Amino acid sequence: ERLSRMAAGWFYLSCLALGSLGTLCVLFTSYWMRYWHGGFAWDGTVFMFNWHPVLMVAGMVVLYGAASLVYRLPQSWVGPKLPWKLLHAALHLAAFTLTVLGLFAVFQFHQHGNIANLYSLHSWLGITAVFLFACQWLLGFGVFLLPWAPTWLRSILKPIHVFFGAAILSLAVAAVISGINEKLFFSLKNATRPYSSLPSEAVFANSTGMLVALFGLLVLYILLASSWKRPEPGIMTDRQVGLQAPGGGRV
After folding, report:
1. Res 72: pLDDT
2. Low-confidence residues of the chain, pLDDT below 70?
């Protein structure tokens, strides 16, 4: 019983750390854009661009990561699976909506300023992650949410779906980190204190990138921890048993 409580404690401690990190990622990105780059607008100017990093971090990283972990909650292990499928799909759709708005902000800014699109490694990583995200959501909706797909097809596609879920998050984190770096190179190129001298903006933005990396790693850790996966029917590890309280209840 003591081991069971420890297992439950570690799980929910990881979730608390994840929620705190995700909130900090969005707040730090918003503060960076407001304090050092003048805030936000929706007018095609650089202030519209400032929405891009905030929306991409909030959508492609934080909300996407949270949506990926729906089936790791012990409450989802018993009872009907459909409500959890709907929550999983809805959170991912919300994440995709924020992502599309983030892309719209940067493309409008580039069009307004006559700036080329999709030439940097950052943009290639980002657009690849978004394209795979769209395919992943459509595949999940068509195969796992709608009732038409046979069990054998779901069994074949499930490992692929899980792999690309983790791969898309990894690509999104890489795109965010490279985007932070790219923005700093542009904004501090002709500054009094260049990027190489680590002015306060560089320290703050680099720290934001580290928070995003930590968030992504923690999500991947929880996703890959076999003892926290939704058990197959009739199969449950010791820790999964531990995450359910004696007497039929759950912790």
Report:
1. 86
2. 1-8, 226-227, 232-251
Determine if the pTM surpasses 0.85. yes
Cα–Cα distance between 161 and 144 in angstroms, integer? 10
**What secondary structure does DSSP assign to 180-216, as a single string?**
HHHHHHHHTTTSSS-GGG--HHHHHHHHHHHHHHHHH
> What per-residue confidence (pLDDT) applies to 244?
55
**Residues in Cβ contact with 208 at an 8 Å cutoff, skipping those fewer than 6 apart:** 25, 28, 29, 32, 180
Q: How far is CA 238 from CA 5, 61, 161, in A?
A: 12, 31, 26
Alpha-carbon torsion (52, 55, 60, 62), positive or negative: positive
Six-digit token string for 90: 């809805």
Interacting residues of 26 by C-beta distance below 8 A, sequence separation 6+: 54, 57, 58, 62
